[in-house]
Amino acid sequence: MEIFHATEIQGNTVFLDAEESAHCVRVLRHRTGDEITVVDGNGTMARCRLTDDSPKGATAEILEKVEGWGGHPYSLTMAVCPTKNNDRYEWFVEKATEVGVDVIVPVIGERSERKVFKTDRSRKIALSAMKQSLKAKLPRIEEPVSVKEFISFEAKPASPSLSLPPSGPVRVNGRDEGLAGLARPEDKLRLICYCFEGEKERISIEDALKGLPVGAEVTIMIGPEGDFSPEEARLAVENGFIPVHLGPSRLRTETAAVTAATAVYLHFV
Amino acid sequence: MEIFHATEIQGNTVFLDAEESAHCVRVLRHRTGDEITVVDGNGTMARCRLTDDSPKGATAEILEKVEGWGGHPYSLTMAVCPTKNNDRYEWFVEKATEVGVDVIVPVIGERSERKVFKTDRSRKIALSAMKQSLKAKLPRIEEPVSVKEFISFEAKPASPSLSLPPSGPVRVNGRDEGLAGLARPEDKLRLICYCFEGEKERISIEDALKGLPVGAEVTIMIGPEGDFSPEEARLAVENGFIPVHLGPSRLRTETAAVTAATAVYLHFV
User: Fold this and answer.
1) Residues of chain A contacting residue B204, judged by C-beta atoms under 8 Å apart
2) Would A109 disulfide with which of A69, A80, A147, A235, CB 3.0-4.6 Å?
3) Which of B11, B46, B67 is the last residue of a domain?
4) What is the pLDDT of residue B196?
5) A211 and A176 in contact (C-beta within 8 Å)?
6) What is the ipTM of this complex?
7) DSSP string, A142-158
8) Are the C-beta atoms of residues A143 and A125 closer than 8 Å to each other?
9) Count of the separate structural domains present in chain B
């Protein structure tokens, strides 16, 4: 099944850009009258009939629309420090898109070895991963910001229960609710994966996600090869981020990022 | 932290092969008397002192041994069909090793486009991923076998409770135990990720893993791009494999494999 991405939709008419038109008409040899599947990158899939098979600018009319096509029941922002090797970051972008992510923010930490990041390639990879995995929503790849900028952007008054997590899940009415159980559904759950060498206060990501309701917003920060600086970690916790660990395995930055995104995805499976 | 892999250990003496010796002495410039960390690939880490810094065959004496170093509390066999693009399979091998896997079996399905598989490169990748992620146990990469050969190799009399899974987790004493709760710890939990187009009998991998005890043995089969053939799937179910799904996202073969391995890992986190 082949998906086309349309950036312009007017009323009932879909306009494919030059690249998508060429792929549709030249490569796949679709002709006027053919049925094609188009996604708008915002969550809507449209079954369309090709009305103009121009390879420079094809158009199609919408026959049927499906909202939230290939979507996931949560909203996930992954703020991940660029890896030394760019391919590894792009691999994370592809896998997170396949599994289900909404926003990817390249964040530059004080200990990041890579201080610059080109978003163009990652956006291309997210686009093809969206089409390949039959999703209608394109993850937003933000321009890089510093870890501290991102934290203050995400900042909210830290509630005691969130800024000082217990060593295990919280029990409410005798049931494991986890920290998420304390957060109101409209609250964003903010997690920072940090080694906190020697510190005892981290909980597992599984405990942090316990009781997370459908529709929850989650933000997860993943540090660079050299981890976050203690000051970045302190700032994150002061601003309501819960320090979590991903278990005993020592994971590369991009593996940690995909593992964390997968933990959120599997919570709703 | 740099790890060396020793294939030969006699009593208290560790022998590094030519490649590891050259890396230790030529690249990292270790000299007799230096302390190095050696793993045996079977789960044991040894803190050693270099006694001979020959770049062709270095030796070291063991100062301290740690069993089960960097291990995980389960035994996981991943039987995954080779991907059309070999890099994607090697990526799965690297990530599964980082997260925690014991045996990887390249299985060739009736619908596999790639019928041959070279194990050498995957073994090299598993070795470097083991060292990079500070583990002492090297995943075993088997020679490729057909899906049907693998199923008969794994075969056991299917117990009704395992071959005919309910549509949800099993409740024992009012607690969600999942299917694994029914299996005795010494039983192997066998899962097959299969699209079963239109079939209703699959449960989610999360439900299948519920109640899985520490030390459990798990085998997971992942099909090729074209999925397992109906006959392969039927044979698997007849032989005690539980058909599971990985949720709503449409995942590539290698992504499905890493997601399934991550689900097992996170179950114990």
Assistant:
1) 269
2) A147
3) B67
4) 67
5) yes
6) 0.86
7) PPPEEHHHHHHHH--PP
8) no
9) 2
Residues B59 and B113 in one domain: no
B1 in contact with A at a CB cutoff of 8 Å?
A: no
Q: Which domain holds residue B57?
A: 3-67
CATH number of the domain bearing residue A165: 3.40.1280.10
Is the alpha carbon torsion for A151, A155, A157, A161 positive or negative? negative
Q: What is the pLDDT of residues B38-49, one digit of tens each?
A: 999 999 999 999
Separation CA B115–CA A154 (nearest Å) = 49
Q: Which residues of A touch B251 (CB under 8 A)?
A: 98-99, 133
CA distances from A245 to A168, A259, B211, B259 (A): 12, 11, 22, 18
B133–A98: do the CB atoms touch at under 8 Å?
A: no
In the three-class reduction of DSSP (H, G, I as helix; E, B as strand; rest coil), residue B168 is classed as coil
Q: Which residue, A45, A67, A89, sits at the end of a domain?
A: A67
Q: Are residues B56 and B112 in the same domain?
A: no
Q: Which of B3, B175, B266, B268 is best to mutate for the A interface (most A CBs within 10 A)?
A: B266
Residues of B in contact with A259 (CB under 8 A): 99, 262, 265-266
Q: Are residues B19 and B129 in the same domain?
A: no
Q: Report yes or no: A205 and A267 within 8 Å, Cβ to Cβ.
A: no
What residues have CB less than 8 Å from A87, skipping those under 6 apart? none
Count of A–B CB contacts within 8 Å? 92
pLDDT tens column, B88-143: 999 999 999 999 999 999 999 999 998 889 899 999 999 999 999 999 999 999 99
CA atoms of A209 and A96, how far apart (whole Å): 18
Per-run averaged pLDDT (10 residues), chain A, 269 residues:
92 95 96 97 96 96 95 97 95 98 97 91 96 95 96 68 39 41 62 77 93 95 93 93 93 96 97
Which region, left, alpha or beta, applies to residue A130 given φ > 0 means left and ψ of -120 to 50 means alpha?
A: alpha
Same domain (yes/no): B59, B136: no
Q: Report the gap between the CA of A246 and the closest CA in chain B (Å).
A: 7
From the list B132, B206, B249, the residue facing A133 with the nearest CB is B249
Residues from chain A that touch B72, judged by Cβ atoms under 8 A, are 248-249
- At how many degrees (to 10) do helices B86-99 and B253-267 cross? 0
Residues of chain A by 3-state class (helix, strand, coil), percent to 5 = 30, 25, 40
Encoded amino acid at B253, one letter:
T
- Tell me if A252 and B91 make a contact (CB, 8 A cut-off): no
